[in-house]
Amino acid sequence: MSLIAIDGRAGAGKTTLARELYERLSQDKSVSVIHMDDLYNGWHNALNIDLTSKLETIIDAFVTRVEISIPIFNWTTMSFDSSQLLVPSDVLIIEGVGAGQKVVRDAGAILHWLDIESEEGLARVLARDGMAIEIHMRQWQVDQEEHFQRDATRKHAHHLLTSQP
């Protein structure tokens, strides 16, 4: 069993890397993917102890090979209104801001960190998701930096992917 975490600032390409790894690894292994965007409880206070608790539950299920149902956040209704079934698999990929936090690393995850300058990341997110979320994204940038500083996520990465000099 392998646990892979992909973390970095918003807009860095984490979902793209997760999709590429899934495509490669699923050719001869069973692979599950968890997107952190599905776990956050909205914009405010998303990177908190509740998120860490969800990750602990997911990791425990993966390690013990137990099937669980994970509540999925709907960004349109701003509520958890569906679920994703996580079945036992050979590989679990967790991607998104907060995916590489200590609880995940302590479970033996291989952590990939994707670097991007914050304004470039913001521009990529707004191009993808629309200007209507700009005010939320600007606060998210503050929140993610505070999280990364507290957790020292980048410092603990096994692999660093960067387009920065």
CATH architecture tag: 3-Layer(aba) Sandwich
Number of helical regions:
5
Q: If you compute it from the alpha carbons, what radius of gyration comes out, rounded to the nearest whole angstrom?
A: 15 Å
Distance between the termini: 35 Å
Q: What is the topology, as strand order, of the major beta sheet?
A: 2-5-1-6-7
Characterize the structure shown.
This protein has 165 residues and is of the alpha/beta class. The protein has one domain: Rossmann fold. It is built from 5 helices and 7 strands, in the order βαβαβββαβααβ. A 5-stranded parallel sheet has the order 2-5-1-6-7, covered by helices on one side. A two-stranded antiparallel ribbon has the order 3-4. A hairpin with a 4-residue loop joins β3 and β4. The model has no long low-confidence stretch (mean pLDDT 96).
SSE layout and pairing:
Blueprint: E1 2-8, H1 14-25, E2 31-35, H2 49-64, E3 68-74, E4 79-86, E5 91-95, H3 102-106, E6 110-114, H4 118-129, H5 134-151, E7 159-161
